[in-house]
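A protein record pairs a chain with a discrete description of its three-dimensional fold. The shape at a given residue is found from the number at the same position. Here is what such a record looks like in full:
>
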Amino acid sequence: MACTSCSTSDGGAPKGCKNNGTCGTDSCNKLTVFDWLSNMSLPNGEAPFDCVEVRFKNGRKEFYRNTEKLTLSMGDIVATVASPGHDIGIVTLTGELVKIQMKKKGVNPNGTDIPKIYRKASQKDIDIWSAARDKEEPMKVRARELAIQHKLEMKISDIEFQGDGSKATFYYTANDRVDFRMLIKDFAKEFSTRVEMKQVGFRQEAARLGGIGSCGRELCCSTWLTDFRSVNTSAARYQQLSLNPQKLAGQCGKLKCCLNYELDTYMDALKHFPNFDTKLVTEKGDAICQKQDIFKGLMWFAYTNNFANWHVLKIEQVHEIIAENKLKNKVSSLEDYAIEVVAEPEKNFNNAMGQESLTRFDQPKAKKRPSKKRKPNAGATANVATAPAIAPNKPAAQNGNKKRPHNNNKNRGNANDKKPNPNTPNEPRKPIIITKNGDKK
């Protein structure tokens, strides 16, 4: 329940590595056991159980005997027996609960083959252990490259260094048997360490690596599930799930373990149901079951000559019709036994802001069109062109800078002067001449 940054030696309560739910070094809460006996004292004259549970990388746990009578608590880093050398692990459980866990794993608490704990890890041991752990990720990348060069159909999923850095265990998955003798020689030459290859199943690989399932929670195999039972497609059929392999398969590529969780409940409910292939004989024709609701106790039947219309019957009524058919009697019709299904009222929501539209952010915003400037009319153009005729004594530049008065409709030009139609031929316009008296010619 603790890593190198959140371990404690007093009280058994972890401080927490403050890494927002994920351990800073290696998944603190993977396959943990809550010690509900930690606050209870042993009876007088009773010696504490001398075995402890130690966790290594990715939830691998082993049991060790505390022969040196060390004062250990959850989160302590200890040096244990390994072959060869020693290994470094974290104590995850002490006391009487270890005896229960050993019985679950099939380990004899009184056996003589249980390895022992050397000592509490010193700072030098922890530094060597941390340095070895830092080598694992780049080594895994290089090991996969070497496996590809040898054209071996295997996947190296994880590497675990021993605490003293003297040995590296390569975990791999493969569908068939793999001859990796040449690969081990390349590993030993490349990494200059002792190499051990260990094959694991696809479920064990997912349990070691961890991840988030389709339900949004951490994988069961990496948090609490320890035994992997076989899962069949019949479990999905009993629960009336779609036999879609993409939805039924987990991250390991196999069927999800959670298909077995509710299977017993469905099996108990199906005991009261007649067989799905049961055929009902009526005077209007034979009827076949199309659908059933296990927990509501309903079955949908349709005539063989009219599959479009379904009739809802309770399982008690279906058993009654089956009993009549066994006596070689035909019932009149399914309509006499069918129940009326009340349609649920539709829920109308006010979609004022368009929040129900999934594509509301995909539509581009309409661009604002630039405002068109008003073009000067023909009359004003004529006045500017004939400005010297009005004031011949003043220069043209001064006349152009002055603001002309708004003189009703005299300077606005003709209302009939419109833009030329592109379909009509262009005709030359006659120039407009304004005399001194203000008359147009």
About this structure: The CA atoms of residues 269 and 294 lie 7 Å apart.
